[in-house]
Amino acid sequence: MFDFLDNPNYDLLGAFWMTIKLTFFSAIGSLIWGTILVGMRVSPVPIMRAFGTAYVNIFRNTPLTVIIVFTSLGLSSTLGINLASKDSTTSLEDNFFRLAILGFVAYTATFVCESLRSGINTVPVGQAEAARALGLGFFQVLTLIVLPQAFRSVIAPLTNVMIALLKNTTVASIIGVAEASLLMSEMVENESDSLLLVFLLFAAGFVVLVLPLGLLLGWVAKKVEVKR
């Protein structure tokens, strides 16, 4: 039934491994950049607040496909930005892989930022006021008092963001990143008599990736939730 998988050109495990790598590195980058953005959005400095607000509103409302294409055509082709080693035999593939991660981080960080901002709103104002009364500055209050509680409050929303990121990695296929969606497109073209099996195969692959992620982060959310 799945005889077409014997084709050596169909590296199914390699394609899903690329999806996992895209998700992993993009998730780390998104959490870091999203945390910085939320710090800007609640900052007492007007310029930083304005930048954070403008960035979130612009990138959150821009289609992810446009952002990923821009990283390829705009940054790579037009500006000549190369994020991979020029000596590498897979320089082009590595460059597009890293550019795709850059695009995912730029987009997903906005949702991380807004999730954290909602978490910050759950922290009692009195705690921040007490910290300031003790002489702590804004950065200390944010990093020592507010953000730790905010993160614990929004594990569930962040789980949804990470699951969406995993599924959004399929967009990377438009710039030639060899992840699961690109392989599926190739198989759909070449295996026209097994379309249903191809779709079921890749649907099952994504279910196998998404379910453990959701269960793990759901368990973490219950363990670290803030008791009010």
Architecture overview:
By secondary structure, this protein is mainly alpha-helical. The protein has one domain: MetI-like fold (Orthogonal Bundle). 75% of the residues lie in helices and 0% in strands. The longest helix has 30 residues. The protein is globular. 28% of the residues are buried. One of its GO terms (biological process) is amino acid transport. InterPro entries: AA_ABC_transptr_permease_3TM, ArtM/GltK/GlnP/TcyL/YhdX-like, MetI-like, MetI-like_sf. Belongs to the binding-protein-dependent transport system permease family. HisMQ subfamily.
CATH architecture: Orthogonal Bundle
**How helix-rich are the residues, as a percent range?**
over 70%
What class would the helix/strand composition place it in?
mainly alpha
Q: How many beta-strand elements?
A: 0
**Beta-strand content bin:** under 5%
Ends distance: 55 Å
Report the order of strands and helices.
HHHHHHHHH
Low-confidence stretches: none
Mean pLDDT: 85
Total DSSP helices: 9
Determine Rg (CA atoms, Å).
21 Å
> What fold name stands as the CATH topology?
MetI-like fold
Number of self-contained structural domains: 1
List the helices and strands and how they pair.
Layout lengths: L11 H30 L4 H15 L3 H15 L12 H30 L4 H9 L4 H16 L1 H14 L11 H11 L4 H30 L4
Helix pairs in contact: 1-2, 1-4, 1-8, 2-4, 3-4, 4-6, 4-7, 5-6, 7-9, 8-9
